[in-house]
Amino acid sequence: MMLRRDDVATPVTGVLDFEGYGNLIDVLERAWQRYPEHIAFSNLGSDLSYCELDQKSRDFAAYLQCSTVLQPGDRFAIQLPNLLQYPIVLFGALRAGLVVVNISPQQNVDELQHQLCDSGAKGLLLQACAASQLETVIEQTKLNTVIVTEQGDALPNWKRFFVNASARYLKTGVPAYHQLPGAVDYCHVMQQGSRLAFSSLEISGADLALLQYSGGTTALSKAAMLTHHNLLANLIQVKLALNGVTEPGCETVIAPLPLYHLYSFTVSCMLMLEIGAKVVLISDSQDTNAFIHELKRHEFTIFSGSNTLFSDLCQQSAFSSLRFDRLKLTISGGMALNPAVAECWQQLTGCSILEGYGLAETAPIISVNPPAAARLGSIGLPVAGTEIRLVDDDGAEVPVGGSGELCVRGAQVMQGYWKQPQQTAQVFDDDGWLRTGDIASIGERGYLTLVDRKKDVINVSGFSVYPSELEQVISAHPDVDDCVVVGVPGFEQGEQVKLYLVSANPDLTVQQIRQHCRERLTAYKIPSQVEFRKELPRSAVGKVLRRALRDAEQQKRHPDRPQVALLNGVQSTPFYTE
Fold first, then answer.
1. 83-100 pLDDT tens trace
2. Alpha-carbon Rg of the chain, whole angstroms?
3. pTM for this entry
4. Phi-psi region for residue 419, left (φ > 0), alpha (ψ -120 to 50) or beta?
């Protein structure tokens, strides 16, 4: 089945109007000209105006141009949480004509080495607390420029001293490092850059802007090549989808998800610069008390987050005491939204959640629920200029009412995987359609519903079992706090359904869970294995790492095989299993 213009509530095809933007730098330059004294970003109690962001990013770019050997087209990695340094460094690197490589600060050593070596990054800015990790792999990389920053380095002098001292001595501390030859301090870079001349470059929309790494079915991540035009297209697409809701120069946005994640990068950074919003960067959303305390300081109008984050906040009594009278837009991405969580958020805040869907390969947003006609349980309508179709395993379009692999074509779709021609060929067909690997269905008026990841579908005796269906049923049990379903090898052939479950009730039994399932699911869908855990391994945006669980199962069955490093080095502890 393919979506055409007459099939949906809003047009999905046609040529996008880039509104005069040639590259991402144009977005910042137009923003500071329109809103020079408005606050662009706020973090740790300090603000950065649009004018200051423009100037500081120019200073950073001047340093890169005049005091390093980096050349336009070189890759420059940024490994930072949500700090004021991130937008400064991002736009500084782009202004110098570099290709930005976003790297998670939670990356384990093996994945850090892989991404630095695979991208061929010659420059890196990272937080001091991660420098000891870099120390172990730097000799295997091509890095010639390393800049180290501390948490408070972009804050005023007195606050910088206090925040940095607190990070070193009162919190987790900063591990010592010694072997980073030529590494320079961020504050020194900014001081030097302010005295140097910046030279503007001609940057084409076809030039690469980002290498965005995403996980796959293999142990090593691969990088989506995204041009300035890919990212600009998605910015304009999301802006059109939210048309009439946002008011230029008047919005305050809460951004708890890391900007190195492409969903947050597009929604909380690029889009909000375009509309002149104030973006409140939350450096550590897992510190719930500090997070809620920060929320009290702002009359926020927009909140972007993920299902896990919404769920955690709804369980906090301090959060329910906040004022939400100005909140008019909540956007969810990064993982599937649980309807129960969405309903709880609506009741608590008075604001419904708009769920969207996307991939790193699509810069990232493919679809989003329209604010005036959101449908709970749906991932919404394709954004403007985006074509959608569903295909079966043979590539044939599925009939109306069926489910199939979601394929997409549009201006936001990546150029391919960096240095991976074979993997690129596997996901693109001859007509330029990108196969997303997700199973979806198309309902009334073109609304999309995500069924599951194709690679996560479990084959039980020839029957397809969709983990998301089971998880939704099981999470409705009052004693289930968290759960995930994966397929594990069966005793004879095919797979078995295994459930990992988190519960605060120590008296909850496997039998009670199975009985709950028997009353609501077909027999072959009932988990044959149930394992209670204290927590589930999750990514930085809260998505459960199914691959980590599958790898652990393989290790149990084949203990002599080398163990694959889990993403982010996260491994949870089981209570008991049956």
1. 999 999 999 999 999 999
2. 24
3. 0.84
4. left
